[in-house]
Design goal:
By secondary structure, the protein is an alpha+beta fold. Helices cover 17% and strands 33% of the residues.
Length: 209
């Protein structure tokens, strides 16, 4: 589902850093609409859900509209996710995040989330198109809400040249794993490239689309 949304977004942007928000047609992504969302950048610590799909809200057992996506994370994960969202809105990067959600009973579910920039004429890329899907549907989904989340992995995709976000002052190289490239520039959860450390997370460059 995350790859399908990426391919839709990439076709819409047609060589631009990001497509306009008005170009998104819900009917074109009907099959994954229940897992998608749109965020609005309010400030560096607030990315508010403007829209959230029914399956995503059901997994959290609550309406997500108007909530801040940066709520419910540890301090380290909060700062790392805020940094990634800044890369999406300021540098038109795309991000794929592996995460785990936890209920108050200690139940957990692994998920994958994609974050893609959207442009508003006269305002810049202050919207984010995303999707978050459970890798396996837990039996308790819809009964016990996800109250906390943990980031497990991050992959970045640079549509054009890599910007200053990955400057030497912010990123240090770590041990190298085999470099596997995907012809479309999208790196799914099972594929890893050269690892880099951002905050406390391992970031995998996804290449250019």
């Amino acid at each position: 589902m995350t790859q399908r949304l990426y391919e839709y977004w990439d076709a819409l942007r047609d060589g631009r850093p990001a497509p306009d928000r008005s170009e998104i047609e819900p009917g074109s992504i009907r099959s994954i609409l229940g897992d998608t969302f749109i965020l609005e950048l309010i400030d560096a610590q607030t990315y508010r859900y403007r829209l959230a799909g029914t399956r995503l809200c059901s997994l959290h057992c609550r309406e997500l509209k108007n909530r801040n996506i940066l709520r419910g994370w540890s301090e380290e994960d909060h700062e790392a996710l805020a940094t990634l969202l800044a890369a999406v809105t300021e540098d038109a990067a795309a991000a794929v995040v592996g995460l785990s959600g936890f209920t108050e009973r200690g139940q957990s579910v692994d998920m994958e989330m994609i974050l893609l920039p959207l442009h508003i004429p006269g305002e810049g890329c202050n919207r984010v198109l995303g999707a978050c899907v459970a890798l396996e549907q837990p039996y308790w989904a819809g009964m016990h809400p996800i109250l906390s989340q943990t980031v497990k992995s991050v992959r970045l995709i640079w549509p054009d040249e890599r910007p200053a976000f990955l400057s030497s002052s912010m990123v240090r190289r770590t041990s190298t794993v085999p470099n596997i490239r995907h012809e479309a520039g999208f790196v799914p959860a099972s594929v890893a490239g050269n690892g880099r450390q951002v905050q406390h997370l391992m970031v995998i460059d996804g290449g250019k689309s």
